[in-house]
Amino acid sequence: MTLDSAARKAANFTLNGLRPYPIAVTTVSGGRSNGLIALSSGSGSIIPEAPRVMVGLSKYNLTHDLVMESGVFVMHLLANGSEEVLDASLKILMQLGGSSGRDGDKLDGLSTKVGVTGSPILLDALSYVEGRVVNSMDCDENTVFLADVVAAERLQPSERLNIGDAWAKLPKEWIAQYEANHEPQLASAMELRGL
Ligand SMILES: Cc1cc2nc3c(=O)[nH]c(=O)nc-3n(C[C@H](O)[C@H](O)[C@H](O)COP(=O)(O)O)c2cc1C
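Above: query sequence and flavin mononucleotide SMILES. Below: predicted holo structure tokens.
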């Protein structure tokens, strides 16, 4: 089923309002580390002492396959604040969100440490939760992963970076690259949904 243009606009308005923060998802499988940027993440439990995190990853993306194999990932919020802080966040966003790890090591040049799951933690992020997958849902075009939070840390005292502020600061050339990368991803999603 597809929507007419008025309903599509209203759906975008509603759903985009639910995803204000870009997150950096990293993982490792068989010694291969990688990561991407996502907007489809959220809390997966109401229990403060046993939090859970969920994220939806497109099957088109390498990070999806690595999380599927290893069952571990780290979900980072990015930081906003001084020019230096914002630049470090945009570097993460551009490095992880505009191309695929299938074409090269995207973590190269980013400061990381190894988390308790073995996944890389991005040291210039604002904060992170590290998760072990407890369940996943196959949604044709993507997989929604639900994970127990097994470690978490606030890395700096800055503000959260929201997606509007990030888009306003991203260079035009990078946005063009992102859009070129997005096209085959969208085509793959539609095919997997039978649309
Ligand atoms: C703002 C933004 C939001 C994104 N949201 C998602 C998302 O929710 N899920 C997803 O799988 N990819 C999302 N992407 C796309 C991936 O970050 C992108 O395709 C990445 O190049 C995949 O890399 P990989 O193949 O190395 O995993 C988003 C990208 C951007 C810039």
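The pocket of flavin mononucleotide is lined by residues 22, 34, 36-40, 56-58, 61-63, 97, 99-102, 106, 163, 178, 181, 185 (CB under 6 Å).
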